[in-house]
């Protein structure tokens, strides 16, 4: 169900994106061995899709922390290369020798006179620019690597010049020469040759608007702000710097000037200003386009002054590093899913024709298809990578191995439920998840009303008060009257008002006493009319509630023999009826002129009120609407988290995002429930979930709970955001430019009344039980004049 973390498997017609690509390996090299780096670059420029394969520097036998996270959550199939570099790999990242496919086999299908010229600059080995050119443009040897071409290691008179017009140019490295080559769009570089027939690199984030007023942390904020506008400062002999430059070019593609590398000696104010010029730096979004200087071998503080002098900013390379998407052949399609599975023709006719030359080679290329569903996101998480021989869901998509290009066949693609994805993300944190009792009750109600969107019709305070009254045990009026008299007596005895109120809250004066199943009040339609004040609004809501089993309609019957009264639901109304008091059959139980209907609360809604999870639903609806276009996988209205067998906490609502982050939400019906113990419990749970922020919601107007502000936290600490009825009862929740949807802006009574009037008008206008008709609404709303 949309927006909900549940066990439902994907079914029906959904739009998908498929990306056919060669396998992608991260190539490990010893950080102290330039020769290994040079060999990998030469091999990758001869490998189909090689320019998109990242190089992994191994420092002291370990993978640097910045690369560990990328191996876990970005699109990498395996780790392996030309060199046996021993290092411990992250969870579920497999080690395997790459099965490189020679790009010359595919290139041979294009006539030589249709190729753009391929420029291969050659520099002296002691030139400080030599490996910067290699990482930026690539290297193409005269003869293909024998190990690529033949299992025996033989090459029979095959040269690249026979297939494409290669121009080898002896140069002395300089920024001017490198810029001239990068700005000349006519010739191809060796890196471009390796990605022939593949879309490579990611586009800048044109929706980037800067931080603005958002209170949320932005872990990839600098990466989004920079886009490709990155200058890598390369220290002499630094494998880490060169690998960083290669990887950034792989991530952002070879169609732009930047990312670019500079030797330390060439990093001057003038050189950086040259790179800032429009056309060399990419402008995008509202605030994108600023250039950044970075290095793996030098601290940002060492580069800050020269960067600032040129209008750039020096940052740690970890803030900018990404592998980007792998080179591939993408297309969109429509798929029919059934119980989480679809049969897809993952290789199109165009793909088959392009890859026809590979059929004559002694082995086929190793191909993978990434499949993603537009309206069901998958989190990027280590556990989602799957076991070695099991299903894989890397970097937000499902991976399927292409068995053969010779046969026209479909392959089965599986998609996990959102709850399975949620459980996998929790497992990566060594946690186990179970729905809580309130969570199950709230989920049942969501299903009863047809989805998260239906919660909108419960966001009306007078209605909520009536629903609690409807669900109360009989005798609650006496209970509240007794409290009122006791309050007066204690005040007469001189007990301070604050102590009386604290004791009343502690002893549950305001807690609802929800009736068990089959009991509770029966209220007439007139009570709903008092709440909504407009008959059509009351009719529309009651019809909707009855249709979705939130209300049960029935009538009261009095036995003429024993005078016992009983309430009968509509299904039991037709006479004769049996008296529960004496057992006699009542042949004429109703008045001859009119049958007076009353309403009781439905079981799904009663359970929600009994478990005090109505606030969970209100918070979930608002948060789903706010984040549904911002990477939200789904939310659940009540989850218990276990470490081994110990319950470490319950989230009243939990949010799962596509980047693998989890956000817990604590919901309280009244401000009295928000205290230091609650805050400590939420801190413990947020720590266990590695939550980037957490949320506290109180189902009261902000003006009635100013004490809540003391529990707010803001950046640079982990933010603790606050919600009240002021937000939860809003019709829409959206992020707007330079606005904070979590801002503390208490509404006065007039604003609250206006909102309640708008809710009633919504009920009058909408046919709640009919499907939404956006066409009629837009066409007929126009002024005919």
Features:
five-stranded mixed beta sheet, 785 residues, 29 strands, alpha/beta
Description:
This protein has 26 helices and 29 strands. With 785 residues, it is α/β, with parallel strands linked by helices. The strands form nine sheets. A five-stranded mixed beta sheet has the order 23-26-27-28-29, with helices on both faces. A four-stranded antiparallel beta sheet has the order 11-1-13-14, with no helix packed on it. A hairpin with a 6-residue loop joins strand 20 (577-578) and strand 21 (585-586). Helix 15 runs antiparallel to helix 21 (603-610) and helix 19 crosses helix 20. The protein is elongated and about 110 Å long.
Separate helix tally: 26
Strand content: 15-25%
What strand line-up does the widest sheet have? Answer: 23-26-27-28-29
Note the gap between the termini: 42 Å
Number of strands: 29
Task: Determine Rg (CA atoms, Å).
Answer: 33 Å
> Residue share in helices?
25-40%
Q: How does the major sheet shape up?
A: 5 strands, mixed
Structural class: alpha/beta
Mean model confidence by pLDDT: 90
What gross morphology would you assign? elongated
Uncertain regions spanning at least 5 consecutive residues: none
Quick summary of this structure?
The protein has about 775 residues and is an alpha/beta fold. It is built from 26 helices and 29 strands. The mean pLDDT is about 90.
